Amino acid sequence: MSLLERMRGDREGWYKVSDLAVGAEIAVPSERPRADIDGSIESPGIFWDEIVSITHIGREQVYDIEVEGTHNFVGNDIFAHNTYLLSADPTTNIVSMGGPVGIGTTTPSAALSVQGVSGISDLFNIASSTGESMFYVNSNGSVGIGTTTPNHTLTVAGDIGAIAFVNTSTRSAKTDINYVTASTTDDMLNQLVQLKVATYLYKIEPQQDPLRLGFIAEDAQTIAPEILSPDGKGVDLYKLATFNIAATQALAARVDAENVRLTSLEARVTALENGSITSASGSPLSLGTSSLASALASFGAYIQKGIAQFGTLVADRFVAATNSAGTSSAGTVTILAGNTVAQVANAYVTPGTKIFVTFTASTTGAWYISDKQNGSFTLKLEQPQASNVSFDYFLVQTEGQIATSTPVTGGSQNSGSQTSGTSSTAAITLLGDNPMHVSVGSVFADPGVVVASGAPVTTFINGVEQVVSTTTITTSSPTTYIITYRAIDAAGNTATAMRSVIVGNPDGTVSTGAASGASGGSSATTTTATASTTAASADTTPPVVTLNGAAAMQLTVGDAFTDPGATATDNVDGDLTAKIVETGSVDTTTVGSYTLTYSATDAAGNTGSASRLVTVLAAPAAGAATSTASTTTTTTTATTTSST
């Protein structure tokens, strides 16, 4: 009997697929009753269908089988006559296609149950045709995708794509719950700022893959270990996200604090711009000119009548501007060849002005400044120059420029007082001179003040609260002190007054500190000093010689010259005009420059002088146009001056 004949009708035997042939029968499950091959009606279950075709599909022991009813199967070399595939070892059974499937067990408890064999660590492994593991489960139940060494419950060697990742966060699944404080979130922000972000590739990735961006676990371990996995080798994304949220909360708190600070600053700036500030008690305080000046004075800055005074002024640069009249503290002067004198007219010049000169061309012989007086000064060369020479000058004031009020008419001194509030009962009146000039080495005595309300007086020296005494006002070297007197009456009105004390008078005199009597009623408070001052020093101030007419004059050969002359006054001897001695002469018949010098000497032997430059020009040629000689702000054509 052939194998095929033996297989037909044999529904109990087992055969290899390679032994099957067309016409053999194969068991097929069905859920509906149908007619069997012999015509009988069979109930639902297993039916026998005849093999229509069987084809080897190219792989070893793999066949494509077609049976009646268009059923198709792919079978290997082990094939049973029904859908139950059994082996000799029951522990390796694959059980029941119609129910739970068990691998390594005959009692599957789920749709698919896998049980390992003792001594074998792998429970489940799906590999490629080259043997590369694609899906792996070890004996601990850890799953590896793309790796056979999972070190977590699920380890994926590669990227994961998902719609969402959900971390279980219900309170019922947690214990030991503690909420972090603001201090902790602030620490987290500081830690987050310190974390170093790196780019990298994993060693299993091709070098041409895009770089990844993230943290290095070992770096984070020393800064923010809270974001790492339990083994310290990975970053827990849920922890990192929560860490970021906490840091953001801390950052928001800092921004809120800055907003409060900014709002406060804006309000204070607005108050300053509007002329009002708020007192410590919260009540509005009017900020007029006087109270603003007083507030600045408490910081050592004194501003009055356009003059600002500071103890030390530091700046990147100074600019000498020109006022509306065209006057500036800086200028440039040119002395024409053959001349020796430049008379410079400048409204800012006073006898006490310091004049800094820089020549912009070389000169032969010495030069010096003379005849400093209100509105002008003279620069003299010892000898005429062969070509034009120019110099720049800069004026610095050393007296009469203190930021205090000037004396009023009638001989009395301006109190320099300032009052804030609605009442004048706290008004302060200065006694004595303001400013006061004291010689070096003398003893200063404060004339004091009178307060209308009788309120106590607090004194500040150069912005620092101190008692005025010979210890706080020393006269050992030239300097300037600003004494601020402040009084506050019972109604809260504040008054201030300032006095300038200049040690080292330019004229060598000393202001006595004798306090004059003060009026103000029985409630007035008068503060006076008990120290005395020295007598006036010897007269060292020279007379002031003032030219009549222009300091520089221009004539034409043949013109008549009339000398305008000069006047002289002295602070001790009075009018010395009659004692003026004039040197030099003018020859109007000869072209050239001539210098006339006017000198006066007082009884103490101090000499003052002033010079006039007279230039004689050649007569214009016949028929030539003539013009009137023009002058600049400082001299004629012989001396040209410009201000910068």
Folded structure, characterized:
With 644 residues, the protein is mainly beta. Among the domains are: 3-75, no CATH class; 330-399 and 541-643, Immunoglobulins (Immunoglobulin-like, Sandwich), CATH 2.60.40. The chain is 11% helix and 31% strand. Strands 25, 27, 29, 30, 31 and 32 form a 6-stranded mixed sheet that branches. A 4-stranded antiparallel sheet has the order 1-4-5-6, with no helix packed on it. A hairpin with a 4-residue loop joins strand 10 and strand 11. Helix 2 (182-194) crosses helix 4 (237-274). The chain is elongated, with a radius of gyration of 56 Å. The chain starts with a helix and ends with a strand.
Q: Name the beta content range.
A: 25-35%
Q: Can you tell me the CATH superfamily of the domain at 330-399 and 541-643?
A: Immunoglobulins
Sheet of most strands: 6 strands, mixed
Structural class designation: mainly beta
Beta strand count: 41
